[in-house]
Specification:
The chain is mainly α. The chain is built from 5 helices and 2 strands. About 60% of the residues lie in helices and about 5% in strands. Strands 1-2 form a two-stranded antiparallel sheet. The longest helix has 11 residues, at about 40-50. The chain is globular, with a radius of gyration of 11 Å. About 10% of the residues are buried. It holds the Pfam family HTH_3.
Amino acid sequence: MKNRLRVLRAEREWSQAELAVQLDVSRQAVNAIETGKHDPSLPLAFRIARLFDMPIEDIFDDEHD
């Protein structure tokens, strides 16, 4: 699944570790999501969307257009 997490994080000048703390996950989990190696759980996707104050669909793209 493609996502804009790295771009959104960079816009706020947050490190992966800083984002991980805010989301209550490991830095490795943030890296895996950003690189597309892991898709977030639905609860985590909702936490990410709330943190960035955006709809989930604006952050994640299932590539099935």
